[in-house]
Amino acid sequence: MITNTENRCRFCKSHLNHTFVDLGMSPLANSYLKTEQLQHMEPFYPLHVYVCKACLLVQLPLFESPDNIFSDYAYFSSYSDSWLKHARDYTKLMVERFGFDLRSIVVEIASNDGYLLQYFKERGIPVLGIEPAKNVAKAAEKAGIPTIVTFFGTQTALKLLNEGKQADLLIGNNVLAHVPDVNDFVKGMKIFLKPKGVITMEFPHLMQLMNENQFDTIYHEHFSYFSFITVEKIFAHHGLTIFDVDELPTHGGSLRIYARHAEDASQPVSQRVTDLRTREEAAGFGGLEHHLSFTEKVKKTKRNILTFLIETKQKGKSIVGYGAPAKGNTLLNYCSIRSDFIDYTVDRSPHKQGHYLPGTHIPIHSPDTIRETKPDYLLILPWNIREEVMEQMSYIREWGGQFIVFIPEVKIYP
């Protein structure tokens, strides 16, 4: 186990003394259990999130090494139809906007199973994946996506540079939050980017996390939670300028930032950058006080969720889950929701079926189980794709089944 005994900011190294939210003790969110593991001791770690008074980076101390978290990873991106569409649309946008072609090289950091790079490859554009999880990288290689199995940082960037490789487009979707050493990571991107190259990074937006009460997106794999103000500061520190930004609906509200070398004036800074920075400052993200207001909101949500569950079970109603996402494990463990409330959950990924959720030990079955048991309520744990799930599972209405989500608040969908 690795612990940050000094509890210092991972960007500016200031002491961390201010709590953003404390979600108690929780297991690693993607550490799904096999039947034989249910009788063994299960490690729990503090899920106590701090905000740095100096730079306002919201962050979780490091308790477990990335090697242990990501070496055998249960998340495969290709099992979400909406995420594949997002990847296809992104590819089209990048090619049309920046003109990438067969002379370019597109590199994705944390490329998972090749879900995104496959669409660049279809257009004849050379691609390279960088993925630390061996089991996931193997799936990408099988799909014809060349993939290096390693963590990205300055060492990897220098090695690739020495091999004559640099990126025209350097992509990182939902990886920035997973990086324990954010300075080494961003410095590595600076090294690996061609002089006129473009970086795009997508990550959950702290402003949306707070506005929409998305505390369940906090788990040990996510070391940092970024406002635009803070991420702009970090990139500028390493000689990278954010020249544009898109606000996306993915993962409950994400940012896609576009960055270039500070010395590259070919991409002017857009008005969207100025507008978002101004909105965040007006909302309080330029100061500490606003960040400290989140705790009470989360506590109130927990009480409302438990009230709903107790009242529903007292009426003799059955509840099952849909999905086994990491965010669901944070929610269930923080609220102490186990099989006394949720009979089981289902997931489309065969890599999760037959396992149990960490901490709560709720069993994971195939979606076919829902037709067999006909539950009264289907709790959608990946609430960010609730429309997709409700369309796929619309048949539960045949027996009067209803959908529910708990984030940002308890809501029933008939």
UniProtKB/TrEMBL annotation:
Superkingdom of origin: Bacteria
The UniProt record lists the keyword Methyltransferase: yes
Chain ranges of the C-methyltransferase domain: 249-408
Domain Methyltransferase putative zinc binding: 9-70
GO molecular function: methyltransferase activity
Chain coiled-coil ranges: none
GO terms, biological process: methylation
Keyword annotations: Methyltransferase, Transferase
Entries under Gene3D superfamilies matching the protein: Methyltransferase, zinc-binding domain (6.20.50.110), NAD(P)-binding Rossmann-like Domain (3.40.50.720), Vaccinia Virus protein VP39 (3.40.50.150)
Protein name per UniProt: C-methyltransferase
Organism: Candidatus Jettenia caeni
Organism classification: Bacteria, Pseudomonadati, Planctomycetota, Candidatus Brocadiia, Candidatus Brocadiales
